[in-house]
Specification:
53% helix; 9 helices; alpha+beta; single chain; five-stranded antiparallel β-sheet; globular; two-stranded antiparallel sheet
């Protein structure tokens, strides 16, 4: 079924949308910045959230329980990036605070190096007063030294969030620049939505454009992009590489 809003965005006659979606970009950035070996291995499986679930909860043959555990692990993975605490996780899971605290403890046990890295980055940010993305873009966070504990706590959550998400958007912008250099100028850049880049391509140029987009791993080997095409933004289909 067509997404209500995306279904309203239709390519001009004679054109086709070509979209690129960076797969689990922020979590890949987090794994590479922290150099958590377990998380890097789990990313390499192709399903980080399932691998996280196995680390947190172990194996089960119950298909419904596997699905729920993967969902819980996915929520934990993203909660880390966004700086959620146990209270927020309890709201997300609709569970007790004690259960949420246990989820976070299990996640920390699964990826201890990542949590160590996050504390190290907070310490560095407190000393410097700012955070840098992987590519050197700076964001001051003055409340890291605030005398108000709530402001200081919020600022500390922003440290990892800023470093990871700032690096992720840097990668997306660089990918857009690379493609703008490579692709025919008749191919239009339409949208950038989070980790997704959408182009509108003349139909006769589409095969060449797809081949050129499939060269992105040469520029960003650690960050795979999924390619999708279609006439309607809400009905695009994934393309296989090759």
């Amino acid at each position: 079924m067509t997404d209500t809003l995306r279904g309203c965005i239709v390519a001009e006659p004679g054109y086709t949308f070509l979209g690129l979606d960076a797969s689990q970009l922020e979590l890949r950035v987090l794994a590479l910045l922290s150099q958590d070996k377990r998380m890097l291995l789990d990313l390499a499986t192709g399903d980080l959230h399932m691998a996280t679930a196995l680390r947190m909860f172990g194996h089960t043959d119950d298909a419904d329980l596997i699905k729920k555990r993967r969902y819980d692990a996915k929520q934990c993975n993203f909660a880390v990036v966004y700086g959620a605490d146990a209270y927020k996780l309890a709201q997300m899971f609709e569970c007790s605070l004690e259960e949420a605290e246990q989820f976070m403890a299990d996640h920390k046990a699964a990826y201890p190096r990542m949590y160590e890295w996050m504390e190290e980055r907070k310490a560095v940010a407190r000393e410097l007063g700012y955070v840098l993305s992987m590519f050197g873009r700076k964001r001051p966070i003055p409340n890291l030294t605030s005398s108000v504990w709530k402001l200081r706590e919020d600022a500390e959550r922003e440290v990892v969030n800023t470093e990871v998400q700032g690096t992720a958007i840097d990668i997306i912008k660089m990918a857009m620049l690379v493609l703008r250099t490579v692709l025919d100028k008749r191919i239009r850049l339409v949208l950038n939505v989070h980790d997704e880049i959408l182009w509108e391509c003349p139909d006769e140029l589409l095969p060449v454009a797809i081949a050129q987009c499939q060269e992105l791993p040469n520029y960003f080997p650690d960050y795979p992009f999924k390619l999708v095409t279609g006439k309607i933004y809400g009905e695009m289909k994934e393309l296989e590489h090759g």
